[in-house]
Amino acid sequence: MTKTYQPPHSLTPTMLRLVSTISEAVGRLSVLEDEKNLRLRRANRIRTIQGSLAIEGNTLSEEQITAILEGKRVIAPPKEIQEVRNAIKAYEKFETWKPSSEKDLLKAHEILMAGLIDDAGSYRKGNVGVMNGDQVVHMAPPANRVKNLMGDLFGWLANTDATPLIASSVFHYEFEFIHPFSDGNGRMGRLWQTLILTQWNPLFANLPVESMVHEHQSEYYQAINLSTKKTDSAPFIEFMLQMILNILETSNSLATPQVAPQVTPQVSELLIALKGEMSRDDLQAALGLQDRKSFSERYLKPALNAGLIEMTIPEKPNSRLQKYRLTNKALKR
Q1: Last-in-domain residue among 207, 222, 255
Q2: How far is CA 128 from CA 4, 207, 222, in A?
Q3: CA-CA distance, 294 to 37, in Å (whole number)?
Q4: Is it the case that residue 289 has pLDDT exceeding 90?
Q5: Considering 196, 224, 255, which residue would you say is the last residue of a domain?
Q6: Whole-angstrom Cα distance, residue 274 to residue 278?
Q7: DSSP assigned state of 278
Q8: N or C: which end of the chain has fewer CB within 10 A?
């Protein structure tokens, strides 16, 4: 291991602001972590698995993943079912791994990629390039350098004084740059960042950061590419910190609607846009949003849970005629 190894990353005012805001959000949510939120943890784990695998092209929904978790039969491509089963097994072992253990990382890859590739649990023996369609956007370091590069990276992680919020993002980017495995690098990088964050605060074991990354998938790859071009992982660090903050804000609003003195910026925007009775499509159009899942998780559900809006047909929540309106609580704000 090279003792002086230091992954190139600069600190920016944006990073420092995000780290401070995230730390405050973590403190608020940690206070609220009790048994009444256990039901959210299972749902968040499913969202984590769905989000991370979807980035890699897996098409299974949260409902299908839930069915697999419950041992039910699901009709889907065998490879995608295998990916989900592997991810479920990996997250069952999640809390037994140490972020600074290279052995644990190899074991995690073996579980995640079992039955999908021949060299699961081993570093690649050949050279690889990262593709965007037919274009090579990144040529990873030669295979004969992978072992040393990963040793340097783990050595840095074990000794760095950087806050885990930044250290985890640096590790994630450097991992993707090295691309140590023949396949599964994306899901492993995201898994290991979550593991680093979980060692800092157990709250992160149940926060579906991966689902937020999936919603901003193109920006995720743009941040990686920009960091590579700059030889500085700052753009990627800023991106990941923003994703972490986004999911914390969402989780805070879902977990404590009855006690939160302030609503999130997204809920505020929804309340301003809601005039009379409006359908979901009308609301999304008024807000200029296209992603239905993001709208539901960051705008609609938090507003409903906070009692600030209500359904016009509450007995049929999925009705095509469903509309939403402000409640008296919202009107008194």
Answers
A1: 255
A2: 27, 32, 19
A3: 21
A4: no
A5: 255
A6: 7
A7: B
A8: C
